[in-house]
Amino acid sequence: MSTADPSQAPRQTLLCLKWGDRYSSEYVNRTYAMAMRNTSRPLRVVCFTDDPTGIREEVEVFPMPEFDLPERMRWHPFRRMFIFKPELADLTGNVLHLDLDLLITGSIDAFFDYRPELDFCVCENWTQIGQGIGNMSVFRFRVGALTKVWDRFRPDPMAMMDLYRNSQTFVCRTLGKVEFFPSEWCLSFKHSLIPRWPLNFFKTPVLPKETKVIAFTGKPDIDEATRGEWPVNKPWKKLYKHVRPTAWIADHWR
Length: 254
What we know:
about 250 residues; alpha/beta; seven-stranded mixed sheet; three-stranded mixed sheet; about 20% helix; globular
């Protein structure tokens, strides 16, 4: 039996980004709290943001880089391409990036342990299985090792935005073949856990024990899913877009 002291392990780094008003500082604070409950090692939590108001002091805050991209990209996910520059503040080594609309339900240490020799590892996009596209809600990258992404993006950002539907497709196609985390680790609440119609009207989503992160892409948001609400922009969509109140979300979203 190992007698190693987890507190003496190398410090891991978790990165999140917050810009605009889609997510408040509460999301950063809860991401910090969830991550701390789900690691047995020293953890550094870093947030790049354009508004640090309300972010708890334990989170290391860095300003979002100066905006010098086309206005169309101000709030677009393509803006995060700056993390693939040769230098990223004082960060080094492998860094785990998590979006703010995530629920952490299991140990994040495994994301650092899984094939640490890789420069990039991502969860496979749930709507593009087998197409070599990751969902960049959850990915690990080695700082300074993926500069070809930035080098391709920076000369003509609009051309890349017009050529690729989204930033994750651009990144994965630029890198070529990418490696994925085990599929059971990262799930989508909407695509993986809500039962198919019409069972979604009668069965509550179940949390698999192997799952470590759940992404809330699109709608419903985390708080809406907890209450059993699925906002729709057209009334007829209520005929199939439905989720039952999912109480176990609140056990983790704190």
